[in-house]
Each structure stands twice: as C-alpha cells, then as structure tokens.
Amino acid sequence: GPAGDAEAPPFTAARAVGARAARMLWLVLWLSLAWFALQPANRAPLALHDLLAGQAHSEPGWLAGIENSAAAVVGSHGLAVSIVLAAACVLVAAGVWLPRPAARATLVLALVVAAVIWVVGEAFGMILAGGATDPNSGPLLALLALAYWPAKQRQAREGRASSC
Asked: What is the pTM of this model?
C-alpha cells in the first residue's frame, strides 16, 4: 500500500496533532478532572450531597427523583466519593497509553463517568429546569472519549489490496 497508510493514526483524535500530543492532551484533561474532584469544596462531607439536592428543586419530578436519590446515596461521604471519582479519572487518563483492549476498557469507563457526571452531577446541564444555555460538559466528554477509540487495524485490508 501507499507509504502514508503505515502512519495511520491509532485513533481519530490523533489526526490533527499526532498520537503523542493527543494522548498528552487527554492526560491533562482527565488528570485535571481528578484534581478538581479532590479540591476542598468538592470533598467536604456534605458538598456533593448539597449540590445534588439543590439541583433537584427546579427539575421535573423524574429527574428530581434521580438527584435526590443520588444525594441520599452520597450523604456525608463527600471525601470518599471525591476519591472514587478522582481514581476513575486517573484510570481514564492513563487509558490511552495502554494496549488496545485495556484502552477500550478505560474509554468505556470514560463514557460511564461522562454519563454519570451529565445525568447526576449536571442534571443534563439543567436544560429541563429552563434558562440553561448549554448541555454542559457530559456530552463533550463522551464525544472526546469516542474520538480516542482505537481505530480498526488496517493490516488485513492492506494485505488483500496489495494481492489484487
């Protein structure tokens, strides 16, 4: 095949800046999220509980139920929840440096974390409460995770093409 095929990016996000730079950007993003999760305002015993319960007041009943249930589960365990969230973010940050199967597993974790952040932590960006201007960061984190999904290997296809 053409010489350019050998340098195909390992994932879509690497097309613009190269694999190493894209991986570094991913690392910075997710380590930043881990750092933010561990900040005093987020790890205080009732901080997450109060945030979730506070969002419930202006949401439709079904979403308020999700928020109130999440607040009850979190309770006064803000530090423990912050540590678990930070650990998940660190795993996700390292994921794009791992071999393909492990990278996929950590990207699935990234999608789960993005969904939990969006649904529970952001209440869909509070769009259903009225007055919100954007869906918040959950969908963007999920889109970025998909941009880092390992590309299919092209070797088998190239072997068939060169034999024709």
From this structure: 0.81
